[in-house]
Design a protein that fits this description.
- The protein is of the alpha+beta class.
- It has a domain at 76-256.
- The protein is 14% helix and 31% strand.
- It has helices at residues 48-55, 86-92, 101-115, 235-239, and strands at residues 34-35, 76-82, 119-123, 133-136, 153-161, 182-189, 196-212, 218-233, 245-256.
- The protein has an eight-stranded antiparallel β-barrel.
- Helix 2 (86-92) packs antiparallel against helix 3.
- It starts with 33 loop residues before the first strand and ends with a strand.
Length: 259
C-alpha cells in the first residue's frame, strides 16, 4: 500500500521481494510503518494521529441484511493508497474547493504508474461461506537478515455491514457518494514463525464514489477504509536484535484491480 508520512513518501523499489504466497498478485508499496523498538528508524515511523484514527475506526456492528443496493459485489483485489500522500489528498480536496473524486481516481492511476508499489487486499467471492481474504504489504515483512519477505496476512471473519458508523476519515465524502454496504475483517498472520509471539489487527473498506458511462456501465470506482496491524516478536527475534515487533495503521483510498 502506498502509505507515507505527511512529510515524505517511503518508496519501495520495483525489485522488492515478493511475499511467498499462493496468491500470484503483485505486491506494491510505499507506506508508513512503525517498529516497536526503543530506537525507531525515521523511515519506519508513523504519526500518532494516523495510528489513533486507524486503531478504532473499523469497529461496527451494523448489519447489512436489509440492504437492497444493486451494486457489484465488494470482492476482488484492491490496491491501497494512504490518505496522507500529498498529491492524492490535494487532488481529492483542493484548498477552497469541494472534494473531487474523479480527480482523485485519475491521480491514483498516475501515482500507481509512477511509484509501482502499493499494498493489496483480496476479498474472495465466497467470503460469506467463511473463506479468508488476503492482505500484503512489503513494509510488514520479516527482518532483512532472514530474507525480508513480506508476511502473508489473512483477513478472517469477513462481515458485510450496512455502514461503518465509527470510521471517521479525514476527508468528507463527495456530494454524490456511493452509498452501499461495507465490510470489515480481522487480520492475523497466515503462518506465524517461531520468532513471532502474536499478531492482531483489523481492516474495513466501503464504497466511496463511482462513475458510469452513457451505456450505464461502471467505468470508475473508488473505495475508502482503514486498517491497523500489530506483530509482537518473541524472545528469539527480540534477543537477536530485531526489536519488539512491528505496527502499521492508516486510513486509505482504494481502487479495485480489473484483472
Amino acid at each position: 500500500m502506498a502509505l507515507k508520512k505527511p512529510s515524505r513518501m517511503i518508496q519501495v523499489s520495483k525489485n522488492q521481494k515478493r511475499a511467498r504466497s499462493p496468491d500470484p498478485g503483485p505486491i506494491r508499496n510505499g507506506e508508513t510503518a512503525k517498529r516497536l523498538k526503543t530506537s525507531t528508524p525515521a523511515s519506519a515511523s508513523i504519526t500518532k494521529a494516523e495510528s489513533n484514527s486507524a486503531e478504532s475506526s473499523c469497529d461496527d456492528t451494523s448489519s447489512a441484511e436489509d440492504s437492497d443496493d444493486d451494486i457489484p459485489p465488494l470482492v476482488g483485489k484492491f490496491n491501497l493508497f494512504s490518505m496522507s500522500i500529498p498529491s492524492l489528498s490535494e487532488a481529492y480536496s483542493p484548498a477552497g474547493k469541494s472534494v473531487n473524486p474523479e480527480e482523485l481516481y485519475n491521480a491514483i492511476l498516475n501515482y500507481q504508474e509512477k511509484s509501482g508499489n502499493t499494498a493489496e487486499i483480496t476479498i474472495p467471492a465466497n467470503y460469506a461461506a467463511g473463506k479468508d481474504g488476503f492482505f500484503v504489504s512489503p513494509l510488514i515483512a520479516e527482518p532483512e537478515e532472514l530474507g525480508g519477505y513480506p508476511f502473508n496476512i489473512s483477513i478472517k471473519n469477513i462481515t458485510e455491514v450496512k455502514k461503518l458508523t465509527v470510521f471517521k476519515p479525514p476527508f468528507p465524502r463527495p456530494r454524490a457518494s456511493w452509498n452501499a454496504p461495507a465490510f470489515k475483517g480481522r487480520l492475523t498472520l497466515m503462518n506465524p514463525q517461531c520468532g513471532i509471539s502474536s499478531s492482531s489487527g483489523k481492516v474495513c473498506i466501503r464504497p466511496l464514489w463511482n462513475k458510469v458511462d452513457t451505456d450505464g456501465d461502471l467505468v470508475m470506482e473508488l473505495f475508502e477504509g482503514s486498517f491497523d496491524f500489530k506483530i509482537v516478536y518473541g524472545s528469539m527475534f527480540y534477543t537477536s536484535g530485531y526489536g519488539r515487533g512491528q505496527k502499521l495503521s492508516a486510513d486509505f483510498w482504494a481502487i479495485r484491480r480489473k484483472s
